[in-house]
Amino acid sequence: MMINRVGRVKTGIFGLDELLGGGYCPNTVNIVLGSAGVGKTIFALQFLLKGLENNEKGIFVSFDMDEKRIIDLALSMGWDEVEDYLDKGKLLVGSNFHVEDIVYLNSDLLDFILSNASNGDVRIVVDSFTPLIASLSFEMRKDVNWFFSKLRDAGTSVVTLEEPLDGNLNNPSITVPVFLGDSVIHLENIGYGEAFNRTLKIIKHRGSWHAEGIFPYRILKGLGIVVEGSSYIAEIKTKVDLDEVLGGIDRSKIDRSILKKLEKLAEEDVPIPKEELIEIIKRVIECS
Ligand SMILES: Nc1ncnc2c1ncn2[C@@H]1O[C@H](COP(=O)(O)OP(=O)(O)O)[C@@H](O)[C@H]1O
Ligand SMILES: [Mg+2]
Asked: Which one, of 41, 33, 27, lies nearest residue 127 by Cα?
């Protein structure tokens, strides 16, 4: 059995679901943070395409890209089916919103999203959220929480954020959505060249296990974003056989609350090497 696989929303990014414990949790707002050129828009499109392939609806909201630029990017990636999805109305692009016009988040923008997200099987992208939040007054930032809760009701969202080129992440336009998002993935172009040129790190994933490391990724025509390293996570996954780990220890001799915690631990595969896991369990029992 894999970790928490049931009910997850597959991201469509190759190699990422394994690092998220099966994918995104349904009805969540998921942040993708990175500077220009790291592949945020490609990530967002790939996420939408995965849903469209499963007959889900897709909504793409952008303040700086119109439909033509989205099609151009899709075509450059070899994803010509995007045009078909647009023609059939399965993929909707909201690009007639202008940041200057948005003073409150409960505007036409939200109406557009909610009116097109009639059932729960919809994927929503806001690419990017940065011009919108930057245009809001400090007072309005508390509305981000409310806006995200509306997005959660509507479906599963990917919201991208522009990382400033100087790498300063302490700006409220980054910290507020990062704090309020259900998951945060940081894409970086660190410029080491080739294998480790582009890296992905999962900063948080509420209510789920996630991989801790820094994982290299590539952008490839046709496939899109491909994250490496997830096979390692699959290999080290350990099934906890509590009887085996406890050896000869009588369960009745173990503190009851500790035993309950260990039984919960044994319900699912644990993504650490077996020897380490046995050491951890031994120490937990010794300390109880
Ligand atoms: N056909 C392609 N093949 C490989 N890489 C591509 C292709 N098209 C774009 N890219 C890469 O994707 C990057 C842009 O991705 P994009 O999603 O627009 O970035 P962001 O939205 O983060 O600014 C480009 O800088 C380029 O490195
Ligand atoms: Mg972009």
From this structure: 41
| Domain coverage including residue 252 | 238-287
Distance 40 CA to ligand 1 centre (A): 8
Q: Please give the DSSP secondary-structure letter assigned to residue 248.
A: T
Which ligand 1 atom sits closest to the C-alpha of 38?
22
β-bridge pairing 57-61 and 198-205: unpaired
Decide if 4 is inside a domain.
Answer: no
Contact 76 CB / ligand 1 (< 6 Å): yes
In the reported structure, the alpha carbon of residue 17 is separated from the centroid of ligand 1 by a whole-number distance in angstroms of 21
List, as one string, the DSSP characters of 211-268.
--SEEEEEEETTTEEEE--HHHHHHH-B---HHHHHTT--GGGS-HHHHHHHHHHTTS
Instruction: Tell me which of 191, 210, 234 is where a domain ends.
Output: 234
- pLDDT tens for 201-236 read 999 999 999 999 899 999 999 999 999 988 888 777
**Per-residue pLDDT tens over the stretch 134-153:** 777 666 667 899 899 999 99
Give the predicted TM-score (pTM) of the model.
0.89
Answer whether 88 contacts ligand 1 (Cβ < 6 A). Answer: no
For residue 87, how many other CB atoms are within 10 A of its CB?
A: 9
**Residues whose CB falls within 8 Å of the CB of residue 142, separated by 6 or more in sequence, listed in order:** none
Query: Angle at the Cα of 153 (from 149 to 62), degrees rounded to 5?
Result: 75
139 Cα: distance to centroid of ligand 2 (angstroms): 27
Looking from the CA of residue 187, the nearest atom of ligand 1 is 22
Among 77-91, 119-133, 163-177, 232-246, whose mean pLDDT is lowest?
232-246
Q: Choose the final residue of a domain: 203, 219, 234.
A: 234
